[in-house]
Amino acid sequence: MSDLHVVLGATGGIGAAVVAELTARGHEVRAVSRGGAAFRADVTTTEGAIAACEGAAVVYQCAQPKYERWAKEFPGFIRTVLTGVETAGAKLVMADNLYVYGPVDAPMTEDLPHAATNPKGRARAEVDRLILDAHRTGRIRAALGRVSDYYGPGGVNTTIGPTVFAAALAGKTARWVGDLDQPHTVAYLPDVAAGLVTLGEHAEADGRSWHLPAAEAITGREFLGLVRTAVGGELKVAGLGRGMQRLIGLFNPTVRALGETWYQRDRPFIADDSAFRQAFGPVKVTPHADGIAATLDWFRRNAA
């Protein structure tokens, strides 16, 4: 029986962390990307997806279109990936997020309705429906691992990446996107990877979504305070509010797209991961102070 674990989007932040976690656990790994990985394939095409997934026992879907093109491209992309996974007879583990729920007024659990009305939230709901329908009809086995904003080594395409860590190391203002005083679940990349691989290893994970374990929710002010302590000196910090987001968005399509989901940033945004902990525990997550120190080290080593 194959023990090949295939990672799509292996050069991205989550994909690279999943490759490292799989390797540490002793699995055979195929790291797939359009460029820069051991196995090059364009998984937006049927031929590329089939080639990438060939022989796999588990496929980790960590690739995605550009943020501002989710609504237009994500469902079609997932249909192509599903063809590759089905042809291989493999299990799919989807690196998912929390967009499907829309605005919430309490900690999020996996049984919440998919109530998002914005284009990105509806696109992610369609992606999840496609995957879980494929599982229910027996085309594939699948599990979805949902996570909030993340940070960590290699986490550069995230709102808690260069604007916080690279800025802090360069002596610039470290900016938290959103209200500085609202609690927000943020996950450390190696913890995200560990959760996804656990879903890949356990058949009882199949057929549903899971909130991946993360350290306790934290405010932007508290998070930036930990960054200030870790850099060992004065650090200018600020929140990037809605007005500034609109202004920057005039010139930056990715920042402009954040406006659709600003409800994630102006009120508490907390994921309840107790279902995962009860099913697969005990679970160890990285304290924010330790994760921040490791992330700063990575940004130091990889400064442009």
TrEMBL record:
Domain NAD-dependent epimerase/dehydratase spans what residues? 6-206
Output the Gene3D superfamilies linked to this UniProt entry. NAD(P)-binding Rossmann-like Domain
Which GO terms of the molecular function aspect are on file?
A: aldehyde dehydrogenase (NAD+) activity
Kindly state one GO CC term assigned in the UniProt record. cytoplasm
Record protein name field: Nucleoside-diphosphate-sugar epimerase
> What's the source species for this entry?
Nonomuraea jabiensis
